[in-house]
Amino acid sequence: MELLQSEPEMSIADMTDRLGVSAATVRRDLNNLSNQGLIQRLRGGATISHPLGIEPSWGERNRENIDKKRAIVRMALDAVEDGQVVALDVGTTTLELARLLQMRSDLMVFTASVPISETLAMGRPTVYLVGGRVRPREMGVVGPLARDIIGRFHYDVFFLAAAGWSLEQGLMDFSIEDVEIKQAFMNSSNQVIALVDSTKYGKTSLMSIAPLEEIDMVITDDQLPNAVRDQVSEVTTLRVAELGNGERGLG
């Protein structure tokens, strides 16, 4: 548990080396911890589980799965066209996308994220930060004022972030207030694209954002099992970003 607190996702091989025990011992202990709800088993490893009402810190999430996030946002750039009005959700993956959009002078970007607005403001896009109350943990703007402002405009594409996703439960997140903002952007957008890495698949969070059927496209990474890819592609457009140089699309 101490290892997973410091590195929220680890492989069995890493744990075996760090703990100096056999892989069989690690698997047995991981199964016990999983049965107690303390961790979540992944293919070949594990990740720490948080109670549904506790949101992991921004810093913790920002350090996780950087290679996956960057592969996903590189593919997401294909969906951004010159002259569009783009909405970016609060989140660490969408922050990576904002960094790639910094030098695009041909975009108008709306966001409820203070860090994303600061990142974009250092570049060339026209940036609008919606008004409202700021959540200290996430530095995201929430509340009825923010929802009202979002509803006054229309957006070509909204890039959505989530804490967890699955076929059965759709897209989920920790904060009730954040989910209201996400849904407001979705209701005013021509296209909704979810940017969710494979480690979030199967994770349950406090509140549902939307079923996958209501999402125009899901972009994830190539660590998602093939069987799950096939199932997801039956209900929405799925694009898979390879962690190497290539990419492939389904659905």
Characteristic terms for this protein:
10 helices, Rossmann fold, 3-stranded antiparallel beta sheet, 8-stranded mixed beta sheet, elongated, 251 residues, Arc Repressor Mutant, subunit A, alpha/beta
Structural description of this entry:
The chain is 35% helix and 27% strand. By secondary structure, it is an alpha/beta fold. The chain has two domains: 2-48, Arc Repressor Mutant, subunit A; 58-246, Rossmann fold (3-Layer(aba) Sandwich). It is elongated. The model has no long low-confidence stretch (mean pLDDT 88).
What's the structural domain tally? 2
Shape: elongated
In whole angstroms, the N-to-C terminal distance is 39 Å
Q: CATH class of the largest domain, please?
A: Alpha Beta
Sheet with most strands:
8 strands, mixed
The quaternary state of the protein chains shown equals single chain
Order of strands in the sheet with the most strands? 6-5-4-9-12-14-15-16
Order of helices and strands: HEHHEEHHEHEHEEEHEEEHEEEHEE
Q: Structural class from helices and strands?
A: alpha/beta
Q: How does the SSE layout of this entry go?
A:
Blueprint: H1 2-6, E1 9-11, H2 12-19, H3 23-35, E2 39-42, E3 45-48, H4 58-63, H5 66-76, E4 85-88, H6 92-101, E5 108-111, H7 114-121, E6 126-129, E7 133-135, E8 140-142, H8 144-151, E9 155-160, E10 164-166, E11 170-173, H9 176-187, E12 189-195, E13 207-210, E14 217-221, H10 226-233, E15 237-241, E16 247-250
Parallel strand pairs: 4-5, 4-9, 5-6, 9-12, 12-14, 14-15
Antiparallel strand pairs: 1-3, 2-3, 7-8, 10-11, 11-13, 15-16
Helix pairs in contact: 2-3, 5-6, 6-7, 8-9
